Amino acid sequence: MSTYRAYQVTGAHQFELVERELLDAAAGQVRIRVQSCGICHTDSITAEGFRPDPDQPVVPGHEIVGVIEAVGAGVTGWQRGDRVGVGFLGGHCGECTWCRRGDFVNCENQPQTGITTDGGYAEVVYARASGLIRVPDQLAAPDAAPLLCAGITTFNPLRRVHAEPGALVAIQGIGGLGHLGLQYANKLGFQVAAIARGPGKAELARQLGAHHYIDSAAADPAEALQELGGAVAIVATAANGASMSPLVRGLRPRGQLVVVGAANDPIAVNTADVIFGGRSIVGSLTGTPIENELGLQFSSDHGVSSMNEVFSFDDAPAAYERMMSGDARFRVVLDMGVA
Questions:
Q1: Which residues of 35-52 are buried (b: 16+ CB within 10 A; e: fewer)?
Q2: Is the peptide bond before 190 cis (omega within 30 degrees of 0)?
Q3: 3-state DSSP call for residue 278?
Q4: Which entry of 29, 98, 272, 292 is 20 to 30 Å from 66 by CA?
Q5: Is 87 helix (H, G, I), strand (E, B) or coil?
Q6: Distance of CA 21 to the CA centre of its chain
Q7: CB within 8 A of 250, min separation 6: which ones?
C-alpha cells in the first residue's frame, strides 16, 4: 500500500480523516504500523487548538503500540518486526545540556508525540528511535497502550518513594490515572489509602488495592491520613488544584505531595505545613523509554491492568468525545483490529 489513513486535527475540534502518502523512515527514525493507541486528556491540547500553531494539521495520540515496518538510516538496535511503543516524550536528542546530564525527560529538543509531531490516531506513525519502548509479548496492544502514559505517570513516582515496606501511600483521585496508581502502590508493598469524593468508589478502591478509603466530602483527608500515621507520599491525580491544597498536612515528616494531575487552578499551601516536617511538593512527568519498559514489565508480572473502553479506528472522533465526557471507566483505547 502506498498510503495510510490518519485522523488529523486543524484549528479547534476539526477532525478530518485523510489519506497520507506512505514514506520511508527518515534517518534516526522508524516507521511503525499502529496496533493500538490510547486516548488521553492531554490530547485535548491538539484537538482543542491549544498548541502553538493550531492551523498546522497534526495527528493526536501518544499512547501508541505497534510493529516496526521500516528502519531509517543510522538506527541500531531495532529492526523490522519489533513490537514497540511510543509515549508522550517522542525521543531525546542526546546532545542538549539535560541529555548530557542523563536527564532525558527534560531534553530541550524532544518532540511531544501527538502535539508537536504526528501521533497515533493513524494506521502508521513515524518516531525517533531514541523514544522507542519495547513491549512485552504478554501484553495485548490495547492493554499496553494506556500504560505508556497513565501507567508510567503513576508508576514512576511510586517506585521512587524512599520508605520502608508497608509505609502509608495515598492516591488522590480514582480515574484514568488513579485506578492504576492504586494497583501499583499495592503491588509495590505499600499500605494504600485512596482519596476520592463521595462513598461511591469505596468498593472499587478496595478491589484495586486500597486498604483504606477516605471520602473527602465527609472528612478532612489530611486529618484522616494523620490518624493513619501520615503518608510518606501522596500522588495527586485529580486535575483540581483546590482539592490538592489541603493534602500537604496529611504527609508525615519528609513526605512528598507528587503532582501528576494537570489542573488550571493553583495549589495553595500554608508555609508552616511545608517548613515544619520538611515536607515538599514535586511534579512528575511520565518517564524515559527504559522506565516505561520497567513499568510495562512490572505490570505484566504483577497483574496491573488498565480498565479500558475500546473503540475502532474509524470511531476515533467519538472515542475522543467519550474520553472528554469524563464518563469513561477509565481509559479509552483505539484498537486497529476492531471493525
A1: bbbbbbbbbbbbbebebe
A2: no
A3: coil
A4: 98
A5: coil
A6: 30
A7: 170, 221, 222, 223, 224, 225, 226, 230, 231, 234
DSSP calls for 101-169? TT-GGG-TT--BBTTTB--SSBSEEEEEGGG-EE--TTS-HHHHGGGGTHHHHHHHHHHT----TT-EE
Phi-psi map region of 137: left, alpha, beta (phi>0 left; psi -120 to 50 alpha): alpha
pLDDT tens figures, 262-285: 988 999 999 999 999 999 999 999
The whole-angstrom separation of Cα 21 and Cα 3 is 4
| Spatial contact of 8 and 119, defined as CB atoms under 8 Å apart | no
C-alpha cell at 80: 523490522
Give tens-digit pLDDT for 222-278. Answer: 999 999 999 999 999 998 999 999 999 999 999 999 999 998 899 999 999 999 999
Question: For the whole model, what pTM was predicted?
Answer: 0.96
